[in-house]
Amino acid sequence: MEREKALKLVKEQLTEHRYQHTLGVMETAISLARHYRADEKKAELAAIFHDYAKFRPKEEMKRIIIDQGFPSDLLEYNPELWHAPVGAYLTKTEAGITDREILDAIRYHTSGRPGMTLLEKIIYLADYIEPGRHFPGVDEVRELAQESLNQALIKSLQNTIIFLLKKNQMVYPETFHTYNDLLKKQE
Ligand code: DGI
Ligand code: FE
Ligand code: FE
Ligand code: FE
After folding, report:
1. Centroid of ligand 1 to alpha carbon of 173 (angstroms)
2. Does the structure's ipTM exceed the value 0.90?
3. Most buried among 86, 103, 134, 139, using CB within 10 Å?
4. Which stretches in the chain have pLDDT values below 70?
């Protein structure tokens, strides 16, 4: 699918703010893909669709998670986690994108997963460091991302886990599993 068509489909689903974020993720993902020799076209499409489901009603997301057999424990954790697998599903059914690597990069862009692919890592990080993001620690992750995708990912997962702990929020176990998996692979 061409960039213009993909952007048009996504724009209809998002607020202007979230659309601008999506453009930032797209540019960042393409640049990381070039840097780390991943497929730039897949990075572009995964980035464009990564937040496709962000504003779907909770009831609709819940139904899709149940009907499509996504892990039902997701429903016990923060609803912020739901738009990732639901986004992968809707990108397939509504936008007609069938590429497994693209759909998995969308699916795992919030929680991560152990054994993340190169494309999954790129989308996860691009989402975290795109130019519109301004939270504490983001510049450090931007710098790390130029040197090592894994080190940047480890730092961003640490930041996210600490952020959730400080807000007294639960942490989805997959986020810990992703973190542990990357640490294990350091040496
Ligand atoms: O959709 P975005 O805002 O662009 O970013 P995202 O899909 O990475 O969502 C991140 C939000 O999800 C962030 O505000 C923290 C929240 N969240 C809630 N529970 C968890 C979680 N993020 C992770 N990684 N793990 C959780 O358990
Ligand atoms: Fe998201
Ligand atoms: Fe993220
Ligand atoms: Fe996002």
Report:
1. 13
2. yes
3. 86
4. 187
